Amino acid sequence: MLDRLQAFFQSVMQDRPKAVFAPDDPRIAVAALCLQVMEADGVVRDAERVKLREILKDQYALDDAALDALIAAGQDAESEAVDYYRFTTELKRQLNEEQRQQLVGLLWDIVYADGNRSEMEDHAIWRVADLLGVSARERIVQRQEAAERAGLGAIDDAS
Asked: Where is the signal peptide (predicted)?
């Protein structure tokens, strides 16, 4: 009897998304910031989409259904936002300094996913890092490390 009841509930829940994210879930803010950085240069490439999925899946140990739900929630939040402040305010409260620095590094990973870095992407990350309280020095360190991870080697320290 218990087995049949459990099977029934599993079949009912099968058609629903496995992960439902609360509107204030910090993972939505991270996904939305990633999406905003992806769109900063006006062109979203497949390599950036793949990198976004890889980062979110690895960072939060999500299965494909939960990953799709997170990205959809991030897209909804991002489309409603007028600036970065909405997302960075809550993340600054919830993340420690090292985690905020790592987030900036993840944003740089998305920028370098397509092998290019634009002035608009630089500006977007500069603004996000500033709002998160990440220093210019640390932002540059994170950028250099992301470039190395992307196989682009050493890059200039100008910005």
From this structure: none
CA-CA-CA-CA dihedral for 59, 63, 65, 69, to nearest 10: -20
pTM for the model stands at 0.81
Domain that includes residue 143, residue range: 26-149
pLDDT in tens, the chain (159 residues): 555 545 544 554 454 444 578 877 999 999 999 999 999 999 999 999 999 999 999 999 999 999 999 999 999 999 888 789 889 999 999 999 999 999 999 999 999 999 889 999 999 999 999 999 999 999 999 999 999 999 887 555 554
Position 51 in a domain: yes
Sort residue 61 into left (φ over 0), alpha (ψ -120 to 50) or beta. left
Residue 76: left (phi > 0), alpha (psi -120 to 50), or beta?
alpha
Identity (one letter) of the amino acid at 8?
F
Q: Is residue 128 part of a domain?
A: yes
Q: How many domains is the chain partitioned into structurally? A: 1
Helix (H, G, I), strand (E, B) or coil at 44: coil
